[in-house]
Design a protein that fits this description.
Length: 153
């Protein structure tokens, strides 16, 4: 298993926090790629959830995704082992050959794709997705991987 894919509701919320709850967010260094996501202020889109392409430690990421509701349009998160070379990962082979442990891509506000080098993490998120009522939940395997790049935006 390479990962999984599913659809989340196209709605305001704390979806990243809900998806990532229970995995070792704090144990990784996170590369935030190009994307588009906003905090909700006065029931409308406000400030950006993440600064433009940046690197956050796990505590910083957890703080951003857990404090208030936001709206996700495009998200590109890559979690790297601490003290590894944090760099752009554009293909599955680059992911395999790097210190990157976890990839979360979201496109068009609903379509989530996750890659993880840890099978337990994949199964944990699959279970959470089922419990949350997400749609079209599928494992990504070598035979069923249709993505050509690991970039969301």
């Amino acid at each position: 298993m390479r990962g999984l894919s599913f659809e989340i509701p196209n709605a305001y919320g704390k979806h990243l926090f809900e998806i990532l709850d229970g995995i070792n967010i704090k144990g990784l260094t996170w590369k935030i790629g190009g994307g588009e996501s906003y905090f909700i202020e006065n029931n409308t889109l406000g400030n950006s959830l993440f600064p433009n392409i940046c690197i956050l430690n796990g505590e910083g990421l957890l703080k951003e995704i857990s404090k208030e509701d936001y709206y996700l349009i495009f998200v590109d998160l890559k979690g790297f082992q601490k003290k590894s070379d944090v760099r752009e990962i554009a293909t599955y082979q680059e992911f395999v050959d790097s210190g990157c442990k976890f990839v979360l891509l979201l496109v068009d506000s609903s379509y989530v794709t996750i890659y993880s080098k840890d099978q337990i993490t994949i199964k944990h998120i699959f279970s959470k997705a089922v419990t949350a009522g997400y749609k079209n939940i599928e494992y990504i395997t070598d035979e069923k991987d249709t993505r050509t790049t690991l970039i969301a935006f």
